[in-house]
Amino acid sequence: DVKVTQSSRYLVKRTGEKVFLECVQDMDHENMFWYRQDPGLGLRLIYFSYDVKMKEKGDIPEGYSVSREKKERFSLILESASTNQTSMYLCASSPTGHLFYGYTFGSGTRLTVV
Amino acid sequence: DAKTTQPPSMDCAEGRAANLPCNHSTISGNEYVYWYRQIHSQGPQYIIHGLKNNETNEMASLIITEDRKSSTLILPHATLRDTAVYYCIVRVGVNNAGNMLTFGGGTRLMVKP
């Protein structure tokens, strides 16, 4: 019954590497989101997309980019990973329209940059 | 979106009701109250939402005061699996590009045997 799937649960990358975090949803939702979660800082929105090929910056987009080529897939890209991007990354999706269904989150990817 | 205030932590005995308060004194007429929870190392999970009437589903009940300035999430018979961080969020009830879900600090509920 998994609805939002993040490709990796744990990931370790080296400083300077290009990192791809993948998220797939099977609910035909229009909106998709990437958050990061850090102790004491809560969940912060990085980027979101409300349609294929559309993207909008969230609160902390610096150092990240995103790609949405298909409705069901939303990728977060760390162009050159740095240690301060070590974090838990959470993907979510939601339908457009009345917020009756809420957001559905994936289980998260814990990224460590060494 | 209206700001919310929640206690940082609460304890509850297993089998008892857990009552989690949330203050949202600046809530606007078209803003809903949403509750999510996040169990350790998982993504947040939607629990319930309401506008002004009390709501109940299979997970919890939501009690909203008549002036809508505060609300209480009730887990009627808390179990150890209800140990989580609970987030109260207030926002307009339309999903579109301009309405993001913003998470505050939440309440860390510890259910004890």
Tell me what you see in this structure.
The complex is a heterodimer of chains A (about 110) and B (about 110). With about 110 residues, chain A is mainly beta. In chain A, strands 2, 4, 5, 6, 9, 11 and 12 form a seven-stranded mixed beta sheet that branches. Chain A is globular. Chain B is an all-beta fold and about 110 residues long. Helix content of chain B is about 0%, strand content about 50%. Chain B is built from no helices and ten strands. In chain B, strand 6 and strand 7 form a beta hairpin. The termini of chain B are far apart. The model of chain B has no long low-confidence stretch (mean pLDDT about 90). Chains A and B meet through strand 4, strand 5, strand 9, strand 10 and strand 11 of A and strand 3, strand 4 and strand 9 of B. Strand 10 of chain A pairs antiparallel with strand 9 of chain B.
Could you write a compact summary of the structure shown?
The complex is a heterodimer of chains A (114) and B (113). Chain A has 114 residues and is mostly beta strands.
Please supply descriptive tags for the structure shown above.
heterodimer, A: 114 residues, mainly beta, four-stranded antiparallel sheet, globular, B: mainly beta, 48% strand
